[in-house]
Amino acid sequence: MSSISNYGFEVQINEEHLCKAGIDTDRHVVTCILTSLRRLNEPDGLDLTVSGLNSETNEHPEWVNKELKDGDIITIKVITTDFEPARRIRPKRSKEMMLNDKLRYYHQLREELKEHLE
Predict the structure, then answer these.
(1) Can you give the residue range of the structural domain that contains 49?
(2) Is the predicted pLDDT of residue 99 greater than 60, yes or no?
(3) DSSP result, the chain
(4) What pTM value is reported for the model?
């Protein structure tokens, strides 16, 4: 690990501790995402996700995936130590799985755009 501190986030909702998210590697991403979603003919969404990517293992840790409500107070503190293990880790995807996803997306786009491609 490099001599530069790794940053993470201590997250609370309404003063209740949720997590201390962080990854002790030289290459990673940690995110705190607040989402407010409104779509036609579908339920509204309001949630908090704390997750990341360990670029060295290609694993996706997830600490929090929580629905929010009006009035919730979210506190995020930047931290450099005492990271907690993720509650869930999505395993890395094989090259074959990634290729299959790309091919599926390619065929979907080709079908959607076929009148523009001729």
Answers:
(1) 8-92
(2) yes
(3) --SSPPPEEEEEETTEEEEEE---SSSEEEEEEEEEE--TTS--EEEEEEEEEETTTTBEEEEEEEE--TT--EEEEEESS-PPPPSEEEPPPPHHHHHHHHHHHHHHHHHHTHHHH-
(4) 0.74
